[in-house]
Amino acid sequence: MKDIIQVCGLCVGFLGCVCAAVSLQVRSWKESSDEDSVIITSNLYENLWMSCADDSTGIYNCWHFPSLFALPGYIQACRALMITSIVLGMFGLIFTLVGMQCSKIGGKNYIVKGRIAVLGGVFFILQGVCTMIAVSWYASNITQQFFNPLYTGIK
């Protein structure tokens, strides 16, 4: 029964790591809303790395942010948190694979393997916390900009 739980924990941790890596590349972290407009000429998308636009003819253009230091602080912090999340997930995968009792990596000392597996679980928890902070912080800033009547950028 322990082996099944450990394998399920490894699979869930792997899926969390993959989802964090995929969400980092998704282009529509921020998307323009033109629902109340009669004429929609273009849609704007933005993520942590680039800004994209597509128009009604189907032409799609993306451009990377020109400078790291020209970005707002929360985008830089979200980038760092997401990268840290992926690194923590990789460490979690490695430590969990070594610490599983059904693996032969690391010998037969099950007490040490159990502690290593717990350390892998801690890395997975830290990965989830970093991802939740980054996504929640970014969403909070988008919501504040959307409801701020003095914000001059794209809503």
UniProtKB/TrEMBL annotation:
The keyword Glycoprotein does not apply. One of its GO terms (cellular component) is bicellular tight junction. It is found in: Cell junction, Tight junction; Cell membrane. Pfam families: PMP22_Claudin. GO terms for molecular function: structural molecule activity. Its main location: other. The chain crosses the membrane at residues 73-95, 116-139. PROSITE patterns: CLAUDIN, PROKAR_LIPOPROTEIN. It is a multi-pass membrane protein. InterPro entries: Claudin, Claudin_CS, PMP22/EMP/MP20/Claudin. Keywords: Cell junction, Cell membrane, Membrane, Tight junction, Transmembrane, Transmembrane helix. PANTHER family: CLAUDIN. Belongs to the claudin family. This is Claudin.
